[in-house]
Amino acid sequence: MVENYDLVILGGGMGGYVAAIRARQLGLSVALVEADLLGGTCLHRGCIPTKALLKSASVYQTIKESLAYGIETNKYTLHFSNVQARKEKIVKQLYQGVQHLMRKNNVDLYHGYGRLLGSSIFSPLAGTISVEHSDGRDNTMLIGKNVIIATGSTPRSVDFLPFDGQYILSSNHALDLEALPEKVVIVGGGVIGVEWASMLADFDVEVYLVEAEKQILPNFDHEIIKALEQKLVRKGIKLLTNTQVTSHEIMAPKVKLNVKQNEKEQALVTDRVLVAIGRTARTENIGLENTSIERDQSGFIKVNQNYQTKESHIYAIGDVIGGQQLAHVAANEGKLAVEHIVGHTNLTTDQLIAPSCVYSSPEVAAIGLTEQEAKQQGYQVEIGKMSFTAIGKAIINGDDSGFVKIISDTKTKDLLGIHMIGNQVTELISEAGLAFILDATAAEMGMTVHPHPSLSEAIQEAALAIDHAKIHG
Question: Which candidate in 100, 133, 344, 452 is catalytic?
Answer without folding.
Answer: 452
